[in-house]
Amino acid sequence: MTAVKKYALLSLCGLTLFCARAQMPATNYDESQVPAYTLPDPLTTIAGKKVTDAETWISERRPELLSLFESEMFGHKKGAFTDAHYDRKGRFELADGGSIFLDEIGDLDMVSQVKLLRVLQDHTFESLGDSRPKQVDTRIICATNRNLPQMVQQGEFREDLFYRINLITVQMPALRERREDIPLLVEYFARQQARQNGLEPVEISAEAMEYLSRLPYPGNVRELKNFVERTILVSQQPHLTEVDFKNQYVEIAVKTGGHDTSVHSLEEIEKQMILRALELYGGNLSKVATDLGLSRQAVYRRLEKYAIRPPE
């Protein structure tokens, strides 16, 4: 790893620890929503007023229906809406004194942005069906693969909310910009897959590792994880060669050009990854969700988004 890249990663680690010890909101810009374990280890310690306090994370946003968003974020009282059979605490209340992670913040609809702005600005909220305000003291950490400043200019994201969440910005380098990490990630994913499925440890040849280090990975770490795990499961071999990986690699043509084209191509990549996972696991959504690093709810939303019908 070059001195420049080492300095960049050390700066990222230092910045995340700084945010952990200060009461500051932070936004992570990541072009393909890389799962948390791909970040430098210090980011996983961000929680509460002290680095050692307990943490509460939100891994995915809820559907854009306002009542569901309010219920998930702020909780609800019994009888507040149909099927509200009991009182429920929201994510902000559960994270009081700790940290809350809001993923895909750039996909939040404008009405929900207003609801979120109040709790960020005043540190107060009201549960659905309750008129009594509640106080909360929570650090906000957001992640997005969208260009929020451009969305603000286009009227797609509230300017006041943007400045509330953007005190500290952490730019996560794409995998192609830190290829030295690829062998470490491949070994980690291979060990994880063997442990989860009760397989013997898998050995990956030097030629295969060199091949994996050359690929473009437009889908970033999630694509690499899916690729390694699929090859292990399909090959069922204790020793994997370059040929084994080549047989499982599906190249997706990525368009180049302006911002809109780039966003469209990433969505197409995500769609293709979901289709491949559905085919690999025979439509088992639990296994698909685990393989892609998503919750089942997130998989359902993406199936609806891309009009994908899972196999019966």
Mean pLDDT: 76
Helical proportion, percent range: 40-55%
Strands, count: 10
Distance between the termini: 47 Å
As a whole number of angstroms, the C-alpha radius of gyration is 21 Å
Biggest sheet, spatial arrangement of strands: 4-7-1-8
Bulk shape: elongated
One letter per element, helices H and strands E, the order comes to HEHEEHEHEEEHHEHEHHEHHHH
**Total helical segments:** 13
Largest sheet composition: 4 strands, parallel
Q: What would you call the structural class?
A: alpha/beta
Percentage of residues in DSSP E strands: 5-15%
Q: Which stretches are low in confidence, meaning pLDDT under 50 for 5 or more residues running?
A: 2-8, 32-65, 256-264
Report on this model:
- By secondary structure, the chain is α/β, with parallel strands linked by helices.
- 47% of the residues lie in helices and 10% in strands.
- It has 13 helices and ten strands.
- It has helices spanning 3-21, 66-74, 91-94, 110-122, 148-153, 159-165, 182-197, 206-214, 220-235, 242-248, 259-280, 285-292, 296-305, and strands spanning 26-29, 75-76, 88-89, 99-102, 124-125, 134-135, 139-144, 168-171, 203-204, 239-240.
- A hairpin with an 8-residue loop joins strand 5 (124-125) and strand 6.
- The longest helix has 22 residues, at 259-280.
- The radius of gyration is 21 Å and the shape is elongated.
In short:
The chain is of the alpha/beta class. The protein is built from 13 helices and 10 strands.
